[in-house]
């Protein structure tokens, strides 16, 4: 039996879960997609519904599903890191205990991110940070971190149930999803549409470090490819892997090119950050007007754009460059150019009537 005979994607409506389900559905016997309540956005995926923080609901929903692999691409943001640890550690434990009850799970993949190296929201970028590029053998920071709790629960569940595992540490993710809380692609596309509507420039919102320094990002399709590779490659068993596109860039190079793709006039860093939350304050009625006129799927701006998260990514005063050597040497050779990833997402957002043409 192959891990891909009957995979279960947990968080199938999110950026990474959606991209993974699109990869899996054409090549598996049956792909299962678990989410809180929405139907699966991917044709050929069997939708399953449960609150991921409700152990009893998970047991009822996953009973008899006989999944051969589990891909954990969801988490639940809480007010404090203490609550993040409690809720998201339990989420991993409860999902895996429910999914493994049939004894058929052979592999589990967990998606985390660079807060593994940079610290949680409450202590982000504080204290002594590791040198860049970040490598998987970097010791954990001396601070509470829900990513660490999730990894610990994954390893403990593997010991209980006998499956192999992989962890995938992504950077800022580019991909297609609607209603996702961390979506830089749709956030920038919606911001650009509002700039066109109001006649204002497309102003870079972030810090001098991000404008001038090197960085990288993660295309959701690149992440999906690495997860599939790790699930089917013996040498990748029980290992964590960084996952980024493979190129590096400076936002001062990227920003005018994104503006060209989005048909707006770019304005670069001018000495002080200009957070999107401030630039877009009070713009919800403008978006409603655009959505009604253009026949868009979502009239609520906060269902399309997550200004707070994009501000966090572009406002950092620390360098973020990620090493991919470990998975390259193990045989994963995926690569995508980040500008192309943005272009694909913008085109799809337009095609799917999430943002205007």
TrEMBL record:
It holds the Pfam family PRISE. Signal peptide: none annotated. InterPro entries: NAD(P)-bd_dom_sf, PRISE-like_Rossmann-fold. Residues 66-356 form the PRISE-like Rossmann-fold domain. It comes from the Bacteria. Coiled coil: none annotated. This is Nucleoside-diphosphate-sugar epimerase.
